Amino acid sequence: xxxxxxxxxxxxxxTYIPSLTRVLFCGVNINYSSSNLRGLRSISxxxxxxxxxxxxxxxxxxxxxxxxxxxxxxxxxxxxxxxxSQTHQQPLVVLNHLSELMIKNLIPQYARFLLSLFSAPRxxxxxxxxxxxxxxxxxxxxxxxxxxxxxxxxxNGLQIGRNxxxxxxxxxxxxxxxxxxxxxxxxxxxxxxPDLFFEAFLLDRSGRINSHNIxxxxxxxxxxxxxxxxxxxxxxxxxxxxxxxxxIGFPIKDLFLPGEDVADNKAIxxxxxxxAGLVRRLLHVGSGVSPHRRKSYMSD
Length: 300
What we know:
About 20% of the residues lie in helices and about 20% in strands. It is globular. The chain contains 8 helices and 12 strands. Strand 9, helix 5 and strand 10 form a beta-alpha-beta unit. InterPro entries: LRR_dom_sf.
């Protein structure tokens, strides 16, 4: 197992380290063509200038040479998009073991390009973060039906349409169509979302608000846990959502609230956030989210 690593500018590049299975590159310049990165289980590319990103061929090569890849985190970085004159259809890379994917701080066109490169038929956890300031409805459209096995869904900043808070009906339909393909979601993490977001989880198959009709199955019928990531989430909207899911026979059992904010020494008090008895369990999670709790929801 790798215990120590020394890097010298004059060293010979391209050495393969079999025990190296997890890499995280943040804002650094890597010579991917001679890096010999393969057999990886976790890849994180974060905050890279375009010139420091791997080329499309290099990125796809790393994916193909890492058939057991389990985690892929892309925050403002991925592969360099090819020039229009160089665009050609790439064979889809199938990542059969990928269970966790994070897409963060990307523009819509780039996110769609990224999602067209691979499939992950067994993906369990999907996180979309800081996809705002532009209309990401086309990205949501491209996600529809792509990851049907997801059980943990995180959305922390998502804009659909030109207005973050109140998208028009056309964008609502795109969003709801996507959620309908996520029928196995059990755990939802949320912050900075459109006002329609929670309403979508109350719709029945006909697209109507499911009101006290237990015979109708709502969007994401297996949803049983909600994690509120920010104190900015409207308390009344959350409480209304919890009450209405309960009234139609699909209650949220566990509610996780943000813990103490180090900056202002404030925290949401569980007993004042929701009425007693509305959820089975109400807990704080700190600013460092509780991965062990989410792991338990990654099974069907």
